[in-house]
Structures are given as C-alpha cells and as structure tokens.
Amino acid sequence: MKALYIASTGMSAQERNVEIISNNIANMRTTGFKRQRADFQDLLYQVYRRAGSQTSAAGTQLPTGVEIGSGVKTGATPRVMSQGNIQPTEKELDIAIRGEGFFSINLPDGRTGYTRDGSFERDSNGDLVTIEGYIVQPGINIPANARAVSISADGTVEAFLDNESTPTALGQIQLSRFANKAGLESIGDNAYVETAASGPAQNGVANQDGFGNMLQKHLELANVNAVTEIADLIAAQRAYEMNARVISGADQMLQATSQIR
C-alpha cells in the first residue's frame, strides 16, 4: 500500500523540520546567528488519467485527471538573514553591524570566512582576531601601549598611544556582501564561506554604498524568536503525529484485507 510509504516521507520530513527548529532554539544566544527554516516540496506523481485527454470519439476531453502523489521531501533549508537585535556590552572590541555586510576573516586553511559575530579580541601580537583566533581583515594591529581604542561607524580604528593627545589611526575594518547571502555555506564557529550560489564577495567600506554601519561596544544577537520557534515546533509535532496516524490506519486496512476468508 503506497499510503505507508507516503506517510513515511511525511514523518521523515517533519523529523528534519524538528531538527532545524532544535538547532535554532539551541543557538538563541549565539552572537550573529541566523535562523534556518525548512522548505518542503512534493514528490513525483503517478498519473492514472491525464487531464485533457480525449474521452470519446466526439472529441470530449477529461477536465481533470487522476494523479496520486508520492509524498514530500525537504527541498531546502535556507537561512533567514534578517537583522538581529543589538545589545550593548561595554567591551571596546565588540562590534555590531547594523545593516548589510559581513566581517571578513582569515581561516586556518587559507580561505576567507565571513561572519556577523563581532566579539573580537587582541592576540599576543596585538592583532584583532575572533574568539577562535582568526585574523580580522584587512589586519588591524593594536599596539600594547594603545589606550582608549575607538571604532567609528565606517570601521576606522583609532587609539591614543603613550601620552599623545591626539588619536592615531590603526586601520579600517572592511565589510563584505553577496548577491545571494542565503547561499553562503555555514562551516561552524559563526563563520560562512562563499559558494557558487552566493556569488563572489563584494568588499567595501561600512556606512557607504549600501553597506551597514558599525556600532562599537555592541553585539548583534541571534535573529531567533522563541515564540515563533515553539509554535513551529508544535505544528511540526502535530504533522508528524498525523502522518503516524496514517501509517496506523493503512496498517489496519492491510490487516483487514489479510483476514478476508
């Protein structure tokens, strides 16, 4: 009975849906995290009578056909790249992006990564790095004698050195954007890498040409809404239960058939 297989695809799809919702909820406090959603697609149909086919010698046509679907599959799990809430931290190397753009970072394998997580630190050389130690492009070095580090809306980093009365420019943090940012590949550690779907990175200066601006001593929170996720979870659970009920009903029908004498 095909109903068993069709319902099993529904249960599998909702299981995947619950996994995605679970990951969203688990990352509610992950800086710069972007939630995912599950997009579903129906499977191939078996056509028993095709709509528009001729039904008589007089040329009459079948107005509607007979098609039986094969179930459902997970078509995609796109990320929702909407802005997360901005939270003050009072830490001078924390930076939030308000608007379009990603920080560019040097990954250990030589590739360039991209992140919305602006919780930066200084390493032993004074370089500005992520919490994993990845250098933030284009490479900002903050000397040991620097004090009162300031980061402007366009990413310019300045600090007072020794007893100087005027700040010294240390560099400018760049931003990157993509034609299809939902096409970026997640690699963990709050980082993404470009793909053929995302298109190449377009680098630029914050607060110009459509790029967002930077806000020092703030971080962008995850764009996960707890109420929405719980509602989606309940809906996924009910859909799973209904597919399980279909399997139970189909099993009862097969049992009745097998008991016919």
TrEMBL record:
All copies of the Flagellar basal-body/hook protein C-terminal domain together span: 216-260
PROSITE patterns in alphabetical order: FLAGELLA_BB_ROD
Locations listed in the record: Bacterial flagellum basal body
| Entry keyword Flavoprotein | no
InterPro entries from the xrefs? Flag_bb_rod_N, Flagellar_basal_body_rod_CS, Flagellar_FlgE/F/G, Flg_bb/hook_C_dom, FlgE/F/G-like, FlgG_G_neg, LlgE_F_G-like_D1
Primary residence: other
Any matching Pfam family:
Flg_bb_rod
Q: Which domain of life is it from?
A: Bacteria
Span of domain Flagellar basal body rod protein N-terminal: 4-34
Q: In the record, which residues are listed under signal peptide?
A: none
Q: Which residues form the Flagellar hook protein FlgE/F/G-like D1 domain?
A: 96-159
Q: Which UniProt keywords apply?
A: Bacterial flagellum, Cell projection, Cilium, Flagellum
Assembly description: The basal body constitutes a major portion of the flagellar organelle and consists of four rings (L,P,S, and M) mounted on a central rod. The rod consists of about 26 subunits of FlgG in the distal portion, and FlgB, FlgC and FlgF are thought to build up the proximal portion of the rod with about 6 subunits each.
PANTHER family the UniProt entry points to? FLAGELLAR BASAL-BODY ROD PROTEIN FLGG (PTHR30435:SF19), FLAGELLAR PROTEIN (PTHR30435)
Q: Which family does it belong to?
A: Belongs to the flagella basal body rod proteins family.
Designated name of the protein: Flagellar basal-body rod protein FlgG
Gene behind this protein: flgG
